[in-house]
Amino acid sequence: MERRTTVVYDAEAAGDDHERQGTVWTATSHIVAAVVGSGVLALAWTVAQLGWVVGPLVLLGFSCVTYYTSALLADCYRYPDPVHGAVNREYIDAVRCYLGRTNVLLCGCAQYVNLWGTLVGYTITASASMIAVKRVNCFHREGLGGAGCNPSGSTYMVVFGLFQLLLSQLPSLHNIAWLSVVAVATSFGYSFISLGLCAAKWWGTHGGAARGTLAGAALAGAARGDGAKAFNVLLALGNIAFSYTFADVLIEIQDTLRAPPAENRTMKRASFYGLGMTTVFYLLLGCTGYAAFGDAAPGNILTGFAFYEPFWLVDVANVCVIVHLIGAYQVFAQPIFARLESCVACRWPDAKFINATYYLRLPPCLSSSSSRAPPATVAVAPLKLVLRTILIMFTTLVAMLLPFFNAVLGLIGALGFWPLSVYFPQHARRQAQDRPPRATLVDAAGHELRLPPHLRRRQHRLCAGHRAQPQGRRALQDDYGQLDRGDELINSLSVN
């Protein structure tokens, strides 16, 4: 008689000890908030490069690919079984469990390069929106072509960088959760304003007649022939990839879901709903913008000389972009800050500069109004102050050297979409299907033969993202050995 295997993990062994109340609808909202961002500003230009036939088809194709790989990644939330296995709380933890140490290094490089590239793109986009606010108001007062209506972008990049320097010194983003809420609200604000402006221009200027061609924008001049057209098409594909990238936060979203039902089933439904709504919105905005502007669609629908009136509505949309990027910048920068500070602290663990923390007393006007309350203080860590300042200054400098909105978005999308959204999820799922599970047994009478608790806990400790220090490598090797012996025990019992 054949014995069948099942996986049974208790909460302690699986590391699943925190309360989760998320539902399919909360996960759907998180996905929409993560996907919809500054990439929507380039959708009209993107469809213009691809044309009426290829443009919508590529948007639908990226949507299908993203949903398929998201479903694969949802099954990697638990290890080794997608329903009862140990929990992986972060994307890189799932890669560590399923693909091993080498792929963790590759995944980390792809993830952090993508995060840093996003910071560069956000700096460029925010400064462009600041310039647009000044220019639109100047044109409203002085008329088109007024003197002093074309300010320098570098100045506004420095202003944006200085503001990020202040926010980066806050203790934690958990203490300013309202910033993320405001960022999400403003992202929807400028997205729908952009859609409304494009629809109004299309209907008001052309009477509902669609502009554009089936093959997309044609470049005039022999010097800008097929090579330039191919380059713009590749940039358009990169922009779409950037607009659909959310794999690096999918595991974190799934970690908010309650069970039962199984988290992977709920996450697959949420991915279907979220990506479906996002794709419909992308098609509406991209096609409406192309119908309104034709082959002359600007690279950034809000800053590329597309709209000047009503000036107040254009200002509101650009201010929404700025506020959204202020919050989103910190969300993407925090993992980089944490990694850099962790590496430096591990390299020089006893350095006074690394471990020092100073407390500055706030002036009475910023302290509590109660006279009996102790004076308020602010913790200042030299390591955090120096490292974060250097990173933001370097990011701002690179943004000043690369002030090309579409090119930067395309580069970020090209660097991040394939490894994070396609390769690692697909490869991890294939490894899970090929690998025999470390599991418990159910005998013919239905009695569970479970691995000993200490082996279950060690299995989770090896795969849940805990980083081993050099002095602990021998202990981890011993753990692997015991787990291998546990596998031998299972194999010896799994007989017909």
Features:
three-stranded antiparallel beta sheet, disordered N terminus, mainly alpha, AA_transpt_TM, Amino acid/polyamine transporter I, membrane, transport, disordered C terminus, 4% strand, transmembrane, Amino acid transporter transmembrane domain-containing protein, single chain, 496 residues, two-stranded antiparallel sheet, globular, 16 helices
Task: Give a verbal description of the structure.
It is found in: Membrane. Its main location: membrane. The chain is mainly alpha-helical. It has helices at residues 11-14, 24-35, 43-74, 91-99, 101-142, 153-168, 177-206, 226-243, 247-254, 263-293, 311-347, 352-355, 382-401, 405-434, 453-463, 473-493; strands at residues 4-6, 78-79, 86-87, 358-361, 377-380, 440-442, 448-449. A three-stranded antiparallel beta sheet has the order 1-6-7, with no helix packed on it. Mean pLDDT is 74; it is low at 1-15, 437-457 and 464-496.
Radius of gyration: 26 Å
Number of strands: 7
- What form results from the Cα inertia axes? globular
**Separation of the first and last Cα atoms:** 5 Å
- In what order do the strands lie side by side in the largest sheet? 1-6-7
- What value does the average pLDDT take? 74
Strand content: under 5%
Tell me the CATH topology.
Amino acid/polyamine transporter I
- Low-confidence residue ranges: 1-15, 437-457, 464-496
Major sheet characteristics: 3 strands, antiparallel
Helix content: 55-70%
